[in-house]
Amino acid sequence: xxxxxxxxxxxxxxxxxxxxxxxxxxxxxxxxxxxxxxxxxxxxxxxxxxxxxxxxxxxxxxxxxxxxxxxxxxxxxxxxxxxxxxxxxxxxxxxxxxxxxxxxxxxxxxxxxxxxxxxxxxxxxxxxxxxxxxxxxxxxxxxxxxxxxxxxxxxxxxxxxxxxxxxxxxxxxx
Length: 174
What we know:
Elements: H1 3-10, E1 15-18, H2 24-32, H3 35-39, H4 48-53, E2 67-74, E3 77-86, E4 93-101, H5 107-123, E5 128-134, H6 138-146, E6 150-159, E7 162-172
Parallel strand pairs: 4-5
Antiparallel strand pairs: 1-2, 2-3, 3-4, 5-7, 6-7
């Protein structure tokens, strides 16, 4: 069963589905609410074209069928997106490209969504979850560290001709 369906079944307060280019305006509106995040690697405000790139953007050596870009809705409002790449960078690992929520979204609900996702990933065979946070993004780093993610390394992240300094965090699910 696909990840969006499993998460949708578990999160009774929300509906979850894979996002498409038809959702471009919704994705863009959510991302525009996070100028500090995009200031880490853009020298301008995020554009709709850049927001849509998230639907297909892949790290080196990842394949399109490994990626899912989920939208979490409360009613008809997109309140969160989760960019996930399965079996990346290695088998049984999951890479979270970004878990972005509406700034007014309660941290407790964000926590519940992630913990539900983690249970599903573990049940479907994932052993490790990895993600990157920009250095200086203290509230985002604190969120993940509170969930027992630990630092793997610090590096420079490249996205096309853009770059930023990040901390790779990971958590073992076994």
